[in-house]
Amino acid sequence: MDSTWKLHHVGIPVRDLDRSLEDYKSLGMATFQPEFQIDSSRVEEYLVYGKTPDPVVKTRGVLGQMGPLGIELLQPVQGETVHKELLESTGEGIGHVAYTVDDLEEETAKLVERGFPVILSIRPAGQTKRSAVYIDTRSKFSNLIIELMQAR
Asked: Is the whole-model pTM more than 0.85?
């Protein structure tokens, strides 16, 4: 891990976003931003295992804060994606750890060179570079995926 990596959040796939939000809020320890939608048809490029998903991927999500820790709850709604795969294989729980990095392409290349493949790649509409990638580190890090996000 490069020293420019900064912890951003842990990603948690959930089966029911509304119920999960209620559960977290009932603890009185977490605050959440408004819900967002991930829709693979609305970005320039959305690749799952190097391929454009069919049908499109739709995911409901929220970013939140639990003390000093950022959390992201993600409910797959449509299509095949990493979040659905994690729910089916291991159930709810931490699926990825996300870091912001100064140079996403450089850090991604370093990990790919070390044998860790990209399993999700997102390039927003109107952009020439990716904004985020999921790196498959499950074989080495207890079934955990690393997300790298371009620092702004």
From this structure: yes
